[in-house]
Amino acid sequence: MRINLEPVGIIKKAGKCSEILIYSEFEQLIKNIATKLGKNESSEQSLLIVHKNNDNSDIHQVQITKTNLIDRVGNILRVGKIDANDDSVIDVRLSE
Q1: Which residues, at least 6 apart from 12, have a Cβ–Cβ distance to it below 8 Å?
Q2: What is the pLDDT of residues 13-44, one digit of tens each?
Q3: What is the mean pLDDT of the chain?
Q4: What sign has the CA pseudo-torsion 58, 60, 61, 67?
Q5: Measured between alpha carbons, how far is 1 from 21 in angstroms, rounded to an integer?
Q6: If we measure between CA atoms, which residue out of 10, 71, 9, 12 comes closest to residue 40?
Q7: Other CB atoms closer than 10 Å to residue 74's CB: what's the count?
Q8: What's residue 39's pLDDT?
């Protein structure tokens, strides 16, 4: 079975942390996360990030990374250091 998933964003290294840029057409994803955070936005929350690992030669594999949300500015999520750069983000969820 083959499933084609459209990326919702991209991971970029940014010094001691990483940034996840969510594409504007998937702005609802950011709104959902912001709504669930509510007034606790300043406290660190754990995120699960599903992304395609560009270092892996198998194009059908994804990687799931758990990291802390540091802050959010518009459609950019600043998170803890992720061992990924220019990886396509498939999904971002709050970890419970």
Answers
A1: 18, 19, 20, 21, 85, 86
A2: 988 999 999 999 998 888 888 888 775 555 56
A3: 85
A4: positive
A5: 29
A6: 71
A7: 10
A8: 58
26 touches 12 (CB < 8 A): no
Residue 88: closest CA among 9, 4, 5: 9
Half-sphere exposure of 5 (CA within 13 A, CB side): 15
Q: Looking up tokens 């030669």, which residue turns up?
A: 57
State pTM to two decimals: 0.82
Spell out the residues 6+ positions from residue 79 whose beta carbon is closer than 8 angstroms to its own.
17, 18, 19, 20, 47, 49, 67, 68, 69, 70
Q: Two tokens at 3?
A: 């499933």
Joined together, the tokens standing for residue 24 give 């504007």
Structure tokens at 50: 């599903």
CA–CA gap between residue 18 and residue 48 (Å, rounded): 14
